[in-house]
């Protein structure tokens, strides 16, 4: 293998160099901006994490598995996964092998930035070597792999459902330019290498093509134009990249180390949040996941559009999208890169000025002291009194020494204020409640509403008090023999409440408890894919008519189980479903209480 | 002139229409799904504003139709358009070819248990307006204490409530609550009586006088604000939390019993007939009239007419007037006018 062009340069590399310089400068600038926007504690945390070999190793592993292999996509749909990993991993391998070729055959040229990309133009094959043909084979192999991915990407435009994603976000004009230039790069490279293969050599893909083209085309004539076209396609792709969804490629490589360093979103617009919304690849998984998109409504209020509008700075739409969301968390649970849809929206709500004054009366309650267990029902349980009644009956049957913190109602955990983005007011409520709970001298806080439970877990500081959801608590009562239950013949389908499942990660405990007292069936979409009941307090702007459709769609999913009745572990889900369900909707506490022997 | 006319529903609308159609000379068939005539009105004790006994009213109405063919405990099985009329099969095996059909299927009472926050079926002393009327009619009800000291009435239970799926006002509950509040106060003069309302819609003749009496002569407390939650204290009392929106403060009252003013919702049992006869349902769930001003009693289908609460919430006088109008409209229709 020898150098063919003595100067080692041809003008066709200029477009590539322009594109490359632009994208590198842009990304570098963007990275500096993000680092500048971080608080100094976060910045320090991030830099220190890069010095920690354990985290660094995890960064490299995660970047390799997520950005190149796209493991989460494989888990979702094999075809979808293959399409992405063939392009990403194949492209990476081609660049890597290009550098190996330069190092092996023309080491003097390694300082030329463009050489590995256009290697085949600049070299001529002098003798056939085994290592040469192996590298050529690998190059052709990965090129074929990429082109198979591109072919699938084209097929996806027609047959989207094959890829496990029903709806995609509407592409912007620049996204279309980026898409077509990306599609063009690899076929053009194949053509350019094929026209050059009789000089530079090639393998199973390029040599037959070279032979074929020579039958009716003069090779020399088409060689340069295809190399020019290849370089221009690269230039176009890289020049539009920062303004398209393809920005997720560099952004995710920053997102992963930042997340591994333990950074959290503190603002919806700056720093870590900026990396997050630039990392959104617009795949559309969140559109299918979103409970609001039933009957193709509210599609433009999904997280993919939030990230798009955050990038554009379209204030009106950002506000609309942030207010509408139910905060069910399904988009975040299914997001391939981990964009925190609900978290970003809460921070966005927190940016506003509220004109309504906050005058929550300080709790003037006194608690019955010196009981081990303090039961907190919360406002939603007060709206579904049967749950509170069944839980207290169970506690009495098990001879638990307890007192009811809010039997007369009127105490708030602070979660509604928190989800409305009024963080300072929520903290005032929390401080009040913390005082009340600590004064009671209890050692266990028993909570029957998962909305409150999530708030207690995440926002409360209660030293010496164990915060327990009623589901594991009752399970424990059965485990320790304090109550005994027998199984009924009724078969229930269990609905995972958003706040208990995705919110607190509790999926197995409720099923275990339900399974002890009744038959159990599963809905088509369950666990982290469970569909929000539509009653969520999270939304600030959805009206009842829209919520009704969502509730009915969620019920249809539960009906797929053909169960006799619906069981849930959230008072809000129960009340919402009960309005429209064609079969009984019961809380697990009620089901268990009826089966106590 | 012995054309057949079928009336579906034996409440006040069906009874009044049957009387008039029979007098006009039609062979009238009145079909009622229950074992008794009189519908919801027959289950009530007294009617405002005259405090008239429902027993007397229904008795008179039933006597008026003694020559009409009445099928009790019977439902319409099938109805299909045939030979310029309708071929109707009843569940008792009778088949009738009717020139015209009057739908007088009325309403259903909202299921108060659906508003779980009020604790109907969960707490010991929560009843509905219908339960209270039944008790006044002499039925025993252990949910009503022997001598209550504080009684509450919750207006608009399942009415004007999008969460409950009903946007309509049930029209009669404001007055019913005032009427029942006065009746309770008469029985238990020492009890404090509270009415929790959003608005008081007192549009009818003498309604406003009733309201003034309730406040002035009976000392009934009217609290403007919806009840947010009801809980039960350890000693079995009910604690009601509401907001008094006139003074802008939250309010807490302890009560011995609570009466929920369950509203009127569309009668879903009529659905099979609606489908077979290709009738239209309006956005509020009730049957859709040709228009809501001058043709409320017309269905838009030849030979099918409406009367009473099947097209929306109505008072008894409105229902009776509609039933007469429908009888005349049927007469005009059959006479080819």
Description:
The complex is a heterodimer of chains A (597) and B (337). Chain A has four domains: 2-19 and 50-244, no CATH class; 264-350, no CATH class; 373-477, 3-Layer(aba) Sandwich (Rossmann fold), CATH 3.40.50.1860; 485-594, Rossmann fold (3-Layer(aba) Sandwich), CATH 3.40.50. With 597 residues, chain A is mainly alpha-helical. In chain A, strand 7, helix 24 (508-517) and strand 8 (519-521) form a beta-alpha-beta unit. Chain A has helices at residues 13-37, 40-51, 53-68, 71-76, 78-105, 119-122, 130-158, 173-200, 206-216, 219-240, 248-260, 272-278, 285-289, 303-312, 315-324, 330-334, 341-350, 378-383, 385-397, 415-419, 423-439, 450-459, 470-479, 508-517, 544-559, 571-580, 588-594; strands at 2-3, 123-124, 373-376, 402-404, 444-447, 466-469, 491-495, 519-521, 565-568, 585-587. In chain A, the strands form three sheets. Chain A has a four-stranded parallel β-sheet. A four-stranded parallel β-sheet of chain A has the order 8-7-9-10, with helices on both faces. Chain A has a two-stranded antiparallel sheet with strand order 1-2. The N and C termini of chain A lie far apart (85 Å). Chain B is built from eight helices and 20 strands. The longest helix of chain B has 19 residues, at 316-334. Chain B folds into two domains: 4-106 and 267-334, 3-Layer(bba) Sandwich (FAD/NAD(P)-binding domain); 112-264, FAD/NAD(P)-binding domain. With 337 residues, chain B is of the alpha/beta class. In chain B, helix 1 packs parallel to helix 3, helix 1 packs parallel to helix 8 (316-334) and helix 5 runs parallel beside helix 6. Classes of the chains: A mainly alpha (597), B alpha/beta (337). Chain A binds chain B through residues 379, 382-386, 389, 407-410, 543-545, 548, 575, 578-580, and chain B through 114, 116-117, 119, 122-123, 162-165, 229-234, 239, 241, 250, 252.
